[in-house]
Structures are given as C-alpha cells and as structure tokens.
Amino acid sequence: MEALSPFELEVARLLVETLHLEDFRPEDIQPEEPLFGEGLGLDSIDALELALAISKAYGVQLRSEDKENRRVFASLRALSEYIAQQRIR
Amino acid sequence: MNRHWVQLPERGNVAALRLIHWIALHIGRPAGRSLLYPITLYFLLTATAARRGSQLYLRRALDRQPRLRDVFRHIHCFAATILDRVYFLSGRLDRFEVRLFNDQLILDQAASGQGCILLGSHLGSFEALRALGVTIQHFPIRILMNTTHNQGMTRYLSELNPALAATVIPISGGPDTLLKVQESVAQGFMVGALGDRVVPGEKTVQCRFFGQDTPFPASPLLVAALTGCPVILFFGLYRGGNRYDAHFELLADRIDLDRRRRQEQLGEWAQRYADRLEHYARLAPYNWFNFYDYWEDDAP
Question: Is B295 contained in some domain?
Fold first, then answer.
C-alpha cells in the first residue's frame, strides 16, 4: 500500500470529515483510487460538498465551467496537487 | 431495467412532433388539436408500456380500476400539452388563459434578488411556466435538465427557442452539474428542477406517496441545504381547452440539516414535497406525465 504525502493526508482528512465517510480512515485512502463511481463511490452531491469545503479551507474555487474538473476530482492525488497549486491560504 | 424512464422514448418521434408543430403553427391550434385524437388512439394501441404505466398510476389517483377511456384521456392530456408547448416555446401565450395561484410568492422572490430552487415535477406542463417566467416576467431562471436521453428532441426544442435553451443546465452525471447549480443560486438565479424522478445511482429518500414507500431524489433538497436558499414548489396544471393553472408554494425558507439527523430531516422535507405532489395529482389526475411503472409494481 502506498503511503500518502503529508498534504494528501490533510486533504484526505478533510474529505473523510466533510463527507462523514465513517467506513474510511484518511490514511487508508489509496492516492490513485477514483473518488467517484467505483473506488470511494462519491456522487455529485458529495462533489459539491467537497468543493464548498475546499473553498472554505483553502480558498480554491472549483468552477463548473472548468473543463479540468473531471481530472481534478479523479483521485485524491490529483485533487491534492490541484489544491496545492491553486491555494491562497 | 426496462421499467426505468431513461429507457423510454417518452417524447415520441421527433419527425411526428415536427409535423404536429408545423400544423399547429401554420394551420392553427384547432387543426392541431383535432389530430390529437388519432394520435392518442395510436399511442393507446401501440405503446403498451406507457399504457400499463398509466393504468398503474390511475388506479391510485382515481381510487378505482381505470377503464380504457381513462387511459385515453390521460394520454390525450399529455398530447395536448405537447402540442401547446410549441406555442409556449415560440412565445405565443396570448391564446391561453393561465390562472395564477399564490404568484406573489414568486414575484417577491424575484424582486429580492436572492437565488432559489424551484422544485417542480412531471405533473402538468413545466414548459408553460418556464416560458411565462423567462419570456414574460424575465425572471433569471435556469433549468436542470437531462439532455442526453433524447438528443434529437433536445436539439429540436432548442431550435424553437434558442434563448430558452441557453438557460438549461445539463445533468452530466459528473461533478460539474451541482457546482453549476450552486453557482447559479449564489448569483441570484432561480434554478428549476423536477423532483419526482430518480436517476440511477443518485441519492434518494423514501417517502410515503399514494400510500406506498417511494424513493425520491435527494439532490434538489441537499443543494438547497448547502446553499441555504429557499425552495419554492410549482405546478403547472393543464385544465382542458386553453386553460392552465399555475400554483406556487413555499416549501422552505431554508433547509437546515443537522449532520447526525441528516437523512431523517431530509426525509421530512421530501415528504412535504411528496404530499403536495399527491395533492395536486389528485386534483388534476390526468396531468401525471410519468408514463412508466413508477412504483415498480411489475418488478419481479
């Protein structure tokens, strides 16, 4: 099992906390695992909650027009990289 | 999976509809309406799944065993609203008599500049209200719509009214859709959604509906909760001839959900919606335009 980077672990905690994924421990999330569909099985309402939480925590706005969204939400690793690039706090 | 609405070619054949619409616009509504009888008869005889869906629903709404003439009337009511849609979409609203109930609610909401969720259903004609809101009142409206399951039809309706088509938020199944809804509400848009059909894989809540446990989609209410905006119910009922009734009701000023009781509280709000839907369905039973096995009576 691949270990998470410290920042990935931080995002994983936010994810588990925001979405109340009681069956998951943040450190158990596979960084390359898909967040939606199979994998964690998140849906569009989870995406919205997550986007709002990310905006609050890091000031990163995920916008609906952004063609990158599918890629950004593809995995914990992709999401963490995106936040790390865009964060303003 | 045949029972599911996504698989049903519910809006019929695009070529046939173009023909009806051409007649409606160039020869007139009486001529168009006279064609509804043979068309209804044709569907009554050939669309067995829709006929079955109608019977299963009417048994509940009428509280008796439906007769073939009830099913005919049901399909005819649907066909009449499909015909009228061409007038609504092309802005020819003068020929209709639309009675408004509690419309002050929607006027006040528009005047406030605050965004909201407009929660409708497949009971009656939602096009009528959409056309009134966008073309006459110039409300800032956007509509959540499944545009993938009948692309030919979507394209055709876009041609009829491009301005109206531009207000559609397509349901993509990806993370974008609800983000777009949330942004729209935050920008002061009224976002319309139809709350009576469940998309496979979507979060649902169970409600009592016509005395039976029935799943309803959770996302319209969840989005309202996340954005803290009001939820307004609307029903545009076809009442025969050239008459439509538009009803507006406030469901919630805002939906506050407590994390630990979320599913339960969501269920309570959804139940209020289901109760109002049932109320209006009993008031105008032939306006139910879900022509499939809604309660999965025939499921194995």
Answer: no
Count of the separate structural domains present in chain B? 1
Closest CA to B110 of B230, B223, B219, B227: B230
Q: Within a domain: residue A59?
A: yes
pLDDT tens per residue, chain B (300 residues)? 334 444 444 445 677 777 777 888 888 899 889 988 998 998 888 888 899 999 999 999 999 999 999 999 999 999 999 889 888 888 888 889 999 999 999 999 999 999 999 999 999 998 888 888 887 888 999 998 887 766 777 787 788 888 888 888 888 766 788 889 999 999 999 999 999 998 877 889 999 999 999 999 998 999 999 999 999 999 999 999 999 999 999 999 999 988 788 889 999 999 999 999 999 999 999 999 999 999 999 988
The answer, for B228 touching chain A at a CB cutoff of 8 Å, is no
pTM: 0.88
Please report, for the domain that includes residue A60, its CATH number: 1.10.1200.10
Q: Residue B76 is encoded by which pair of tokens?
A: 């005819």
Q: Is B179 on the interface with A (CB under 8 A)?
A: yes
Which structural domain range is residue B79 located in? 5-287
Q: Are B156 and B218 in contact (CB under 8 A)?
A: no
- 10 Å CB burial of residue B142 (0-12, 13-18, 19+) is buried
Residue A1 lies in a domain: no
List of residues 6+ apart from B14 with CB closer than 8 A: B152, B153, B156
Chain A residue nearest residue B175, CA to CA? A44
Could you tell me the residue range of the domain that residue A77 belongs to?
6-86
Minimal Cα–Cα distance from A42 to chain B, Å? 10
